[in-house]
Design brief:
Helix content is about 10%, strand content about 45%. It contains 2 helices and 11 strands. The chain has an 11-stranded antiparallel sheet with strand order 1-4-5-7-8-9-10-11-2-3-6, covered by helices on one side.
Length: about 190
């Protein structure tokens, strides 16, 4: 609150200008954008000796906190329900959910929380550093992010990263159909 102590008009005008300047310098409240699940997708790809497995998570929530209009200042969080994964094969789904892989009974949630964003060389490209928590183990990951043009009032993001499944305790393999250690993750988000 600003109070003009002297009723003399020139001083009062100066006091009003100072007050207006202080008001405009006040920090803007963070804007939180929520991912619209129907317009997004979170999936992973794993190579095996004989094929590629694509898994899609159907239950997840995401928020993007924007303290400014600069994406470099943004923080992204994703909470994924591990039990919501499907591959199109009931046997593969059951195997993915058991103790050898996601172990959904003991670790029902997968989480990603970003820590920093660095602009890339291409327009709209960023490298997002963050923490991935899977099976109760947290490891840093680097995510390649592309900002797509806004559509229907939604901010759109495409992202991808990879991780080593063994870093998260998923060491199981079948002798004749081995699963590659590197798992690729692709994310498409529409946030409003």
């Amino acid at each position: 609150m600003c109070i003009a102590l002297n009723p003399v008009r020139p001083l009062f005008s100066i006091a009003l200008l100072i007050c207006a300047g202080l008001a405009s310098a006040a920090p803007r409240p963070d804007r939180t954008l929520t991912a619209v699940q129907a317009d997004g997708r979170i999936e992973f790809r794993a190579s095996t000796t004989f094929s590629k497995v694509v898994g899609v998570f159907h239950e997840w929530h995401g928020n993007l906190i924007m303290p400014s209009d600069n994406f470099q200042d943004a923080t992204l969080t994703l909470d994924i329900e591990a039990d919501s994964v499907t591959t199109g094969s009931g046997m593969k789904d059951k195997h993915l959910k058991d103790k050898n892989f996601f172990d959904v009974k003991n670790y029902p949630n997968i989480q990603f929380v970003s820590k920093s964003n660095a602009p890339g060389t291409d327009p709209g490209a960023f490298t997002m550093e963050g923490d991935l928590t899977l099976r109760g183990i947290t490891k840093p990951v680097s995510v390649k992010v592309i900002l797509l043009p806004d559509l229907a009032g939604h901010k759109r993001i495409r992202a991808e990263f990879e991780f080593n499944r063994r870093d998260f305790g998923m060491t199981h393999n079948v002798p004749l159909n081995k699963v590659a250690d590197t798992i690729n993750v692709e994310i498409a988000l529409a946030l409003a």
